[in-house]
Amino acid sequence: MNKDILYNKKDRKILKKELAAESFNRITCSFYRYVAIENPSLSRDTLYKEWNQLQIFGRVYISHEGINAQVSCPEHKWNSFIKSINSYDAFKGIPVKRAVRDGRSFYKLVIKVKKEIVAYKISDEDYDMGSVGSHLNAQEFNDRLEKENAIAVDMRNYYESEVGKFEEAIIPDVDTSRELLPAVKKMLNGRESDPILLYCTGGIRCEKASSYLIKNGFKNVSQLNGGIIQYAHEVQEKGIRSKFRGKNFVFDERMGESITDDVIGKCHQCNTPADSHIDCGNDACHILFIQCKKCNTTYDGCCSKECKEFASLPIEEQRVLRKDPQKVVSKSRYSSKIKPKLRELRN
Ligand SMILES: [Zn+2]
Ligand SMILES: [Zn+2]
Fold this sequence. Notes:
Blueprint: H1 12-20, E1 26-34, H2 40-53, E2 57-63, E3 66-74, H3 78-86, E4 97-98, E5 109-113, E6 134-136, H4 138-146, E7 151-154, H5 158-161, E8 164-166, H6 177-187, E9 196-199, H7 204-215, E10 221-224, H8 227-238, E11 244-248, E12 257-258, E13 277-279, E14 288-290, H9 293-298, H10 305-312, H11 315-322, H12 342-346
Bound molecules: zinc ion (2 copies).
């Protein structure tokens, strides 16, 4: 097959311009399923060709264990897209969740073959997808939260819960999905019989996480069906009180969708209330952090004075400096890629 039609190699700036010039609206949505896929590479190429033609943008992971997709679809292609998804036996009837807020989310289509659709890096003996936590809708989840000894666990990464979370949820202090499950197991040590309530963005992480906890001796594990996205829809439609406060972090250009108006995050630079994740404007850094409007101006959208200075150099000079590890100003200064200790760095 001609590789050119299977990958988008255009420059990011051009793609963003094309997206901005589109004359139609896009629907942002997500879906996943744990299902055996025999030949993920072949499925990947087939889906890419088909969805590229439908002008689908977004990020899709395919593996032997299933599919995980966050995409945007032109409004007028929506029915064709749903038809396309359902034309595959493995994906027939898959629940497609529309985003709480639309908006320009992705600017190209990326479909990757992965080992796991959620990279927990746990061994096959540590979970069994035939036994997962019971699925709760919004009202049931709210009710269960009130139960004695109930304990809600945020299964997302730390930086996601910094801008929005369920009241009183436990936030595991880890940087990557890989460290998450062992950390959660440790935190819940001794609570094997208590009601454990798991939640994540769209539900996919809880499927496997609940299976892992059950396999590790937890007896009362349930999960928020369809994740925060589905919860937000139900809260809106049924007039239920939202126990989730703040923003639902999403991995696309929007960086988050507000569920309630609460601003629960803090600017990583000056500590005032803020809930906007920023990608450091220094191309050699690109660290993800929370920044208030004022600091955004002061630091030119960068994570530090050093990055601001580096980013303001002529691009040619930056290129030369980037070759020298002593002179480049990059995120390697941080002990963690996604949770920079910016204030400590400054002092
Ligand atoms: Zn600030
Ligand atoms: Zn930076």
